[in-house]
Amino acid sequence: MKFGLFTIVPWHEDWTQERSINEALEQIELADQLGLDEVWIGEHRFSRHGLVSGVWSFLGQVAARTKHVRIGTAVVVLPLHNPILVAEEAAMVDVLSGGRLNFGIGSGYQRQEFDGVGVDINESRERFHEAVDVIIKAWTEEKLSYHGKFTDVENLWVLPKPLQQPYPPLFQAVSTTPESIEFAARNKIQVIAGGPTDILGQAPQVISRWRAKMDEFGHPHAHLDPPMAKAIYVAPTMEEAETDPVGREDFSSRILSSVGSNGAAIGLPLDKDGNIPPGYENWADRQKDRDRRDDPGHAGLPPLRGTPEVVVERLKETQAAGINHVFGAFGFPGLPHEKVMRSIELFATQVMPHFQEAKVS
After folding, report:
1. CATH of 2-354, one of 3.20.20.30, 3.30.70.1280, 3.40.50.2000, 3.30.1360.30
2. Model pTM above 0.90
């Protein structure tokens, strides 16, 4: 199996912004030293949900402060950006990191983020699809000529080019929407499962559907193991594993269900009147899905929370369901930094060796 650390650098009310950012970087450094395969960074803005609005500067820090882990974006919200600038920035991170970039992308879901940067969320899917095309062409063609709905350039020399050839591995965050899974497969992009698909117990089915679509489009995929995002917390005792998250594990749902600057819930694409933009029809009940996240009776795979022995057994269940690639946060917003670091260390030293031959510092 492959394992990674994930963060969007949530900003808990008891923390300063500076502390949140610096402790996240220390956790990433520890993951690199202890032999985890990857770190994944998620972009968000305009709320405590995540502080990585300056995703490229943060990734530059990660590249400078690590030596071994692959550096993933989970995800860059493409419709919020000029795709030519994204191609440049991502290529720069790939060069600076020595070819360690995993380029994860998504179409976004927080209407407040779209409103805040002046992008119409109703154009999200169109912008996303065009951006993927523009970025790949910018990386693979000597000069870029593109005449689309949102990008119109001729003979443009986009530099630098990525170190990895033909370009860094592509990953796309998907939920259960068939169209998003089909788009990923058609373009030979690995899916990132988790979140809603985990809560609903559908992550294995999403990956199976993606594999079926890869077959349909004639793309080899047996050598690929799409990742799944899943919360991880390892503690010396079950009592700590169960009590430490109390009062903290609902941070994300609490922030996402609160009202943003546009009068609508921060974590939804719906507007204040309940209107759903095109392509987001499956999001109408998403907050109800989030509320099930910590319900022990939900249909998802078992929570990776417990002593090392318990987490090993639960990972075996996850692997048996067809998931061989897992990344996640190793604590909860507001949890003391030393406990998050301990969770990473226990996972790397006492859980990972059961699933891979890992050199541990």
Report:
1. 3.20.20.30
2. yes
